[in-house]
Amino acid sequence: MFDQQPTLELLFQQLGLDADDAAIDQFIREHQLPAETKLHCAEFWTEGQRQFLQSHWKKDDDWAIVIETLNEQLHSDQHPSV
């Protein structure tokens, strides 16, 4: 059972990625997605990462909120600056 409230840092750890602030910021900058690309369909995920993202998104559990945050950040280039 997972006791902690999911965070972006914990999501990166679950995905086997570097989870410090600088690494997360760099990942987001370097992996921007076109608007039409769904998060779990991005080419840079391994199959295990893809399954984790997709299964928790479908379950709409606590991870889904953090996954949506990552989704928005990876699509941030698609939104005009205010």
Proportion of helical residues: 40-55%
Largest pleated sheet = none
CATH class: Mainly Alpha
CATH topology: Arc Repressor Mutant, subunit A
CATH architecture annotation name: Orthogonal Bundle
Low-confidence runs of at least 5 consecutive residues: none
**Termini Cα gap:** 41 Å
Cα Rg: 12 Å
Superfamily at the CATH H level? Uncharacterised protein PF10982, DUF2789
Per DSSP, what share of the residues sits in E-state strands of 2 or more residues? Answer: under 5%
Structure description:
This protein is mostly helical. It has a single domain, classed as Uncharacterised protein PF10982, DUF2789 (Arc Repressor Mutant, subunit A, Orthogonal Bundle), CATH 1.10.10. Helix content is 52%, strand content 0%. The protein contains four helices and no strands. Helix 3 crosses helix 4. The longest helix has 13 residues. The radius of gyration is 12 Å and the shape is globular. The model has no long low-confidence stretch (mean pLDDT 91).
